[in-house]
Amino acid sequence: MAEYSNLFVVLMGMGVVFFGLICIILLTTVMGMILRPKESRKIVEDQAGTGGTEVPEEPQRGIKPEILAIIT
User: Fold this and answer.
1) Count of alpha carbons within 13 Å of 32, Cβ hemisphere only?
2) Are 66 and 72 in contact (CB under 8 A)?
């Protein structure tokens, strides 16, 4: 049986792990695009067209702004 150096084993293990993580990221991204309902796609496209400006939501009644800031 061939003997492998410790450095080779460590690098091969790290490579396999990162390759697997990249595959999981790609798979979840593709599945998210495929399974997203059509209405949701239109909403996302409309929000992307606003130029990245977000309108802050008004706090709900009964929640003080300080508490809302702590939660967020």
Assistant:
1) 7
2) no
DSSP per residue over 11-50, as a string?
A: HHHHHHHHHHHHHHHHHHHHHHHHHS-HHHHHHHHHHHTT
C-alpha–C-alpha distance, residues 43 and 37, integer Å? 10
pTM of the model: 0.48
Distance of alpha carbon 33 from alpha carbon 41, whole angstroms: 9
- Higher pLDDT pick, 36 / 20: 20
Calculated CA dihedral for residues 54, 55, 57, 58, nearest 10 degrees: 150
Tokens of 1: 């049986």
pLDDT the model gives residue 17? 98
Dihedral angle sign, alpha carbons of residues 51, 52, 58, 60 = positive
